[in-house]
Amino acid sequence: MLPQIIKLNSIALDLLFPKRCVGCGREGEFICDWCRHSIERILPPICPRCGRPQPGGVLCPSCITWPAAIDGIRSPFCFNGVIREAVHQLKYRNLRALSGLLAEYLRDFLVDYPLAVDIIVPVPLHHKRLKERGYNQSVLLARELGKLNGLPVVENSLVRRRYALPQARTGSVIERRKNVAGIFFCEDSTINNKQVLLIDDVSTSGATMDACAQALKAAGATSVWGLALAREI
What we know:
By secondary structure, this protein is an alpha/beta fold. 39% of the residues lie in helices and 14% in strands.
């Protein structure tokens, strides 16, 4: 009976508040077929570490001298157009229902480009920002992805212990790495000897994910791969 009630509630909500495409406003889906085909994808060859397009699939100039803790960062999409608007709606406009569709995109990407992982860990928000927003968009994506691929989601193991400026407000790659250096902490035995899939909505320089990877590996993670829905190119 409960699944039927949930389905009826969902139908009622769709009638009262129909889904509209975040790209063009067309009624029916959060991202319509036309807008979905306009999304710019990141395709190989890419830098094996940061995931940016890179001829030959070798380390890009920025990564050659970067002593990264993270094993690699991957993203299915460029951070522009429809995907940029989708992230904005999820992150700042409280459109949490969008997380299911975006998690499907992440699942599809992992089917095409598998990563050896055991558990999913979302990038945490500082408690101040979490209180302001009311939710963590990376947690929503991680939960939905966990439902789709059957991997356990470990929340609250990774902690952001001090407030930092949003990465988008910082300048150079060096400044972004300094901005998040040492701000994450993990003291959870669940992480020990696990291959971690770290989830975030957007990757800019990769500094945030790398700072998370440092904390996770200090807690015993054997590997940490970052997966962000979109990447700034």
